[in-house]
Design a protein that fits this description.
Layout lengths: L2 H34 L3 H11 L3 H4 L1 H13 L1 H10 L1 H23 L4 H28 L20 H25 L5 H32 L8 H24 L3 H23 L2 E3 L10 E2 H4 L3 H28 L12
Antiparallel strand pairs: 1-2
């Protein structure tokens, strides 16, 4: 296990965390869309709040997939082949969401259909990402060649992975509620609904996290020993502290930006809790698997390849961050509700 292999293990999780933070709130806004936007004006405001930024947010997911392929090809092959149907559903959802955002305003005759597509296209990725993470942690059946040997899609659904999907969904909903509360007019009914549902989702996320921590440690992976137990404990504490902070700021009613930042910290720490819990495993083999778990040592590319990737990342990641800073500064501030008559 080389230093560059370890570096890229955490860089890939950093990219995943970036996606969870940046695209999390616009997926959450899509999930909340039919429940908190009651008028055409409110629906348009929700779409406009993510319209200029959603496509840039997805760069993190694409980059994470490409980095996994280049740095740890065996892990990429196993996960993408084993989760093929789930990944196709995620891609279908993301495409459906993108199309619906663009056509909801331009095609008023089919507005109800596009609104439904926006919800479904946001819900599918929001749930399936958590289910996939649950499977990676709990372990999947693999043959001697490292290929997934379970039942496609249905073999990935267990009580534990469903709970992981619900935790991911709750975190997306909190992020979406925090974003809408931050962008909606201050005294609007839309903001009030976003704050209310955000609080409920925050409580659900904390309860699900505690339940999954006990369930995962004692029943799913009782024998998994992390080499970074101290860092794992620190990530769990940061997550809980950030969630408590976001709840406290949210009850104040005037600190929408603080809530959004605290929620982003919680999402970031949750991803790195997974990373520190799994290290140095990339894909865990379930009990009864013929093949062993895929680790950094068995899956890492050559140091030459990882070295070139590191150089490219040192240039590319800062550019992406500059793009995000420019975009979010350009479109900062609350939106004004469009004037529509029902």
């Amino acid at each position: 296990m080389t230093a560059l292999g370890v570096l890229w293990f955490f860089l890939i999780f950093l990219l995943i965390a970036g996606y969870f933070v940046f695209d999390g709130f616009d997926l959450g806004a899509g999930v909340l869309y039919p429940f908190i936007a009651k008028t055409d004006s409110e629906r348009e405001l929700v779409r406009h709040s993510i319209g200029p930024i959603w496509d840039g947010n997805e760069v993190w997911l694409l980059t994470a997939g490409g980095a996994l392929f280049a740095a740890f090809a065996p892990a990429y092959a196993t996960t993408f082949s084993g989760f093929y149907l789930a990944i196709m559903l995620v891609l279908f959802g993301l495409i459906l969401r993108a199309v619906s955002v663009e056509f909801a305003t331009r095609d008023p005759e089919w507005a109800k259909v596009w609104n439904a597509c926006f919800f479904v296209g946001s819900l599918l990725p929001a749930v399936l990402f958590g289910v996939a993470v649950g499977n990676i942690y709990a372990g999947i059946p693999m043959d001697a060649a490292g290929n997934y040997s379970g039942i496609p899609l249905l073999g990935l659904i267990t009580p534990f992975t469903l709970l992981c999907g619900l935790l991911g969904l709750a975190m997306f909903i909190v992020a979406g509620g925090a974003w809408i509360a931050l962008k909606a007019p201050h005294d609007s009914d839309l903001r009030a609904r976003a704050i209310k549902i955000r609080f409920v989702a925050q409580l659900m996320a904390v309860v699900l996290f505690l339940l999954l921590s006990v369930y995962g440690h004692f029943l799913i992976q009782p024998d998994m020993v992390s080499e970074l137990s101290g860092a794992r404990f620190a990530c769990a504490i940061v997550f809980l502290a950030a969630m408590v902070g976001s709840i406290a700021y949210g009850r104040n009613g005037e600190r929408d930006l603080h809530v959004f930042i605290a929620q982003a910290i919680a999402a970031f720490s949750l991803v790195f809790l997974l990373a520190t819990s799994m290290f140095p495993n990339l894909v865990v083999a379930s009990a009864g698997s013929i093949g062993p778990s895929i680790t950094i040592a068995t899956a890492a590319s050559s140091d030459t390849a990882l070295g070139w990737m590191t150089g490219i990342a040192c240039i590319g990641v800062p550019l992406v961050l500059v793009y995000h800073v420019f975009t979010y500064r350009t479109f900062r501030g609350r939106l004004q509700e469009p004037d529509h008559r029902e």
